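Task 17 of the worksheet. Students: predict the tertiary structure of the chain below and write it out as structure tokens. Keep your answer in the requested format; marks are given for formatting as well as content.
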Amino acid sequence: MLQHLSIIFQEHLNTLKENAPRVDTTKLEQLLSAAYAFISPELQQISLPDFPVDNLNVAALILERNPNIPVHKLLYLLYPYNTFLSRDHIKNVEIVLHNLNIETKPQWSIALHNVEFKDNQALVNIEINGEKSQFSVSCGGNKSKTEKKGFVKTEYQTQLLNELLLSHSVGDFCIVGPKGCGKSLLVSQLASLLGYTIEPIVLYQDMTARDLIQQRTTLDNGDTVWRNSALVEAALKGHLAVLDGLHRIHASTLAVLHRLVHDRELQLHDGTRLLRHDRYDDLLASGLSQKDLEESGVKRIHPAFRIVALAEPPILGSGQQWLSPEILSLFIFHEMRNLSKNEEMFIINSLYGDISDPLHSIMELADQLRKSEDSTLKNLSSSLSTRQLLRIASRMAKYPADSAYETIQRTFLAKFLPNLARRALDGASNKIGIQQPSKFGLFDKKSTKVGCSVQNGILKIGNTSTNIFKTDALTKVPDILFYDVPQHIALLEWLLQDFLLGNHLLLVGNQGVGKNKVADRLLQLLNRPREYIQLHRDTTVQSLTVQPNVKDGIVIYDDSPLVKAVKNGHVLVVDEADKAPTHVTCILKTLVENGEMILSDGRRIVPKDMMDDSGGHVSSFIPVHDDFRMIVLANRPGFPFLGNDFFASLGDLFSCHAVDNPSIDSEMELLRSYGPDVPEDVMKKLVQAFAVLRDMADQGQLTYPYSTRELVNIVKHLQKYPDEDLATAIGNVFDFDRYSKDMADTLLEVLHSSGLPTEGVLEGRSKEALKKLQMTIERTSGKDVSSPKHGKEDPENQPHVGGNTWAGGTGGRDTAGLGGKGGPYRLDKGHDVHQLSDAEKDDIPEHVKKAAREMNRKAFEERLKEIKMSEYDAKLYGQFLKAVQPQIGALRGVLAELQAKKKERSWSRHQTSGELDDGKIIEGLTGERSIYRRRTEQEPPPGAPPDKPKRLRLVLDVSGSMYRFNSYDGRLERSMEAVVLITEALRGYEARIRYDMYAHSGEEHALELVRVDRPPTDEKQRLQIIRTMHAHSQFCWSGDNTLPAARHAIASLAEEDADEAIVLILSDANLRRYGIAPEELGTILTSDPRVQAHAIFIGSLGDEANVLLRKLPAGHAHVCMDVASLPQIMQQIFASSLLQNS
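Model answer:
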């Protein structure tokens, strides 16, 4: 075996020497040794992705360009292990390299001297670590080099650009880096340096191989033909094909590229074959003419053609590992990091002058978030990408009055972050000195009102003014009823400022807060025409751009509102953006960022200044109008809207604004405008009640955030119908909530405390029932029930009262009707109902009632017997259960939300029935049958690992102090209630969330209460757990094992293979007594990134718990002095875990 390997090794080495004769043999041997070590059986056992051995030829060719390139750098270009391997695997790889004497952190610098154009090549002169070399690279047709506007060179980007030149000289490459770090800008810089025309191709999740290569279309006479995609056009014309979003596309679609990348050959759907330029030239040399080849369907791939892929790094441990061995073999990989703080400061200084104090502190915060070890903060850092910092800098240069706090709140949409993430952000901001100013625009009641006026063709909002737009499309300018309230006017000023800076806007808020109203009002004031598009779950990439229709057997593409807005310079309002899948809305990226987009009918949107040097026929171009803007509206992410997180995916492309319900004063002013005749005190009570309800929704106690829309509807109703009962008007809004008892109780409590009527609000009474008076005449029928029957049908449908003859009578007996007794079923014939009294209906013989009662009692005893539980035990458990009954419902609601998000359905294409697929209309014309699509639950791709469950571990404090101080603050009871709450709430969810429970005291640090494979199945087992806790706490030795318990829980859980691991450590805040420093506990909580650990303090002497809360890492500690708040804490933890996995 070893001899066989050495022969293969030697053969491979000889091949590399032939291809790169000038390269030092030692370096080639090191390259080969490392590659063969990575694919050795020993390393295969630890599941390392295969090293792309075939790409070693590419590494040797790069080495041929300049022999001074370190071996590690070459290996890293082929196998960027830091990007896709876990810490342990990275360690294994580096040990192998160390054993082969390959330095893992070599020092090297690459400098570009100049680029000279000669014939169809560009000669590049570079210097690497002092050694100069010259090599030729392919170049485009635009030899006049133009520097891209707004591009500021930094040392890091210049070095990376020079590295790209090396890779470009030998093949296709991929740039992997976080969103907003400047990947697209770097590629455009490379294109302008080498005179290339860029073909932007945005990849999306449900893109098919056909979309990537060729699509069917029809000619004017109805004939169907194949139309080349942008990728094929780039191959034929020698352009630079930029595949944006390699991490989004399905691996099966990407498989079509393998032959194009490796062999530079491609077979098209219409039978055409694309050949590599040298093979095509050989055919010509063999005597075939160009015409012969053309007729045979053979075309030449241009030698200058290159593919550049852009991607975001895979999320480790999330199952979203797109960087597979197949993709590793396709490209040379370059990592791109976010720019450092100093580099960003240099760029901002160059573009916008001196950096103000607020901007400096924002940049400091961005730097801290990126460097943070805390996963929550690290995830938040993507909202302050370089792209977003440049936007903030341009705004602050024009409007220096913005404070750092206001800017941070808007950029992160802090209002809508999960509680834990918000607290973590506030903690990080406070450390840098970004604090809420005493006067913060929207919420400062004493702040001066912002004025809004239109005079002499000039709009002025606050201190911002602009000329009113002149347009012919007056019918498209919104004309709405809008009452100016201080909060909305302040928001309009911000929006106007961003609009004037040329930014596209993103408005995020709960439903009913007035996002559409505010957007329309802005356009109404500016006199700007609007195009409107509303997205939904079934929105596809095609429907977002063009709408195909069949007319006389020919497919005609109608422009969507998006294309009309781009053409005519209108403002596109994209409503409900969160409803469409993010892999659909992501195609807006290149349009917003660069003003480029390829439509599904082959046309392309391009910036005006690129009309001349873009690929394709000029007739297929749509230049972006200078006045085109986009305003995107979206609901907040998460429950109850269950939309997609548009902000997380594309938020840093837009200027973001959170639209909140108006403040109490602003809301009162708004309601007075809608209901001038409604009594002031009624409106005040309504506003106060809704303020409380919203506050409860923010804290997670209510799922639905009641908005201004509902409040306005109540007031409008009262204004129009002043004699209407107030309870009915309020009831109309809360009708839906009467089906949930917990929700109904909460609502009634809030309404009652605000002084509003509660009687009948949630009883669902109709207006007619309130208007008709009921007259009750008491008399008993004195008749017995005999045998039930349908009764006779009355052909004239006369009303029948009493008796037992007619069907559909009222107040009778035995027959089908209403209001009587003894009938087989109800039957309504539309008459007034005469109702028998409840007393008569209840006049059932005592022996029947007794039998029913005995049956009930017997069933209860059977249940107790079944679980071997005494009546006393049942009563005891019932006390604990009753105390947390509402909270169990709340927590089960949170778990149901997790489940619902998991079961999102997707489109299955190529079906023989269902809804007609836009993309297959032409196939339908040609007679194909599988041209439909249906919504189905998404099946995991073949070979994908099964869904892993979430792992939850509860670590409970049962030390002596819990028993000792239980009478002081009920801490032990609270801990026992928490166990009942969690075990009851997780019933039925064990497959999705696997949990176990451990306890710690002065004696034990890991007392097992619940095994992960044996959760309690009945009341007796649950009672046994809390009895064990109580007994242990009563009889254990004093002492504290909180730290060893936490260490053991986190370390052992980290070893398990789970979708997500969460540890909840319930403890009293009695650490000081045993000399435990909060910092020690904090270090343990954040010790392993694979486990989210949280300390929940359920007991405190004095202010101990709150002191600990301030000293522990933000978002990892909680105080729970009332078990009712435990579901909210759990909800926050789950919400922040969703944020990290999105």
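Marker's comment: The chain is about 40% helix and 15% strand. The longest strand covers residues 110-118.
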